[in-house]
Specification:
Rossmann fold; 32% helix; 7-stranded parallel β-sheet; alpha/beta; two-stranded antiparallel ribbon; 19% strand
Length: 230
């Protein structure tokens, strides 16, 4: 395995909506105890915790977003987290990046969910003018993507990373489909069609255990066959 300081320059983690700022009802992360695991990802908690711990041990940057219906972390609420604001005029976050590896891309929260869907509030690159700047400033060649809301949130993350010029490697067994009831999304058919398109534009796929066994070469497959969208 590569030395830790070399691996962190080659890969970053992009966590789409697995976490929320914890409250008394939350299933808290053991590695990131101030955060809770979103309900639709709780069945994946063991895999998530091992990913979070791997990132911590190897000093790997972990970019994360919160679901539009989740309680978000606020700027300066967590001493180790840099919140990248939606306001393009606010560039104070850039100076705060030094020495930090936990980075939250702010999304729009607290709107009615149907309104958020219509306005695509789930798309962190459409509604956060600093998100693309963040990726280019970090300049990490490969992003290991996993998360909740595959049809909408994960899809938006993958397209944004690819548009920025970087490689996406998606962990097929650390994801959950989007909720149904939002247009044609949240079905096995929609999930497969979206994944096929993402693979077509350059995303690779692999499993959680295959990545942890060989993180230096995460490019494993361009097949969508291993993903369940049920």
């Amino acid at each position: 395995m590569e030395p830790k300081n070399e691996l962190k320059n080659r890969i970053g983690f992009f966590d789409s909506d697995c976490l929320e700022w914890a409250n008394e009802q939350s299933l808290r992360s053991r590695v990131l105890p101030e955060f809770g695991i979103r309900k639709r990802m709780q069945s994946k908690i063991d895999k998530l915790e091992k990913l979070f711990n791997f990132a911590k041990e190897h000093d790997i940057v972990q970019v994360f977003t919160h679901c539009c219906s989740a309680q978000p972390v606020q700027a300066r609420q967590h001493p180790e987290v840099v919140v990248v604001p939606r306001d393009i005029a606010d560039q104070s976050w850039q100076a705060a990046l030094a020495g930090r590896r936990l980075i939250n891309i702010e999304k729009i929260h607290n709107s009615p969910l149907n309104h958020s869907f219509i306005c695509r509030h789930f798309d962190m690159f459409q509604h956060n003018s600093n998100a693309m700047t963040l990726l280019k400033k970090l300049n990490i060649p490969t992003w290991i993507l996993f998360g909740h809301g595959f049809d909408l949130c994960v899809d938006s993350a993958a397209k944004g990373i690819i548009a920025a010029g970087f490689h996406v490697h998606f962990l097929t067994d650390v994801t959950a489909p989007s909720a149904s009831g939002y247009g044609p999304y949240g079905t096995p058919e929609s999930g497969k069609a979206i994944l096929d398109y993402l693979v077509k534009i350059g995303m690779t796929t692999g499993t959680w255990d295959a990545f942890l066994q060989n993180p230096e070469q995460p490019v494993a497959s361009t097949s969508s066959a291993a993903v369940s969208f049920h």
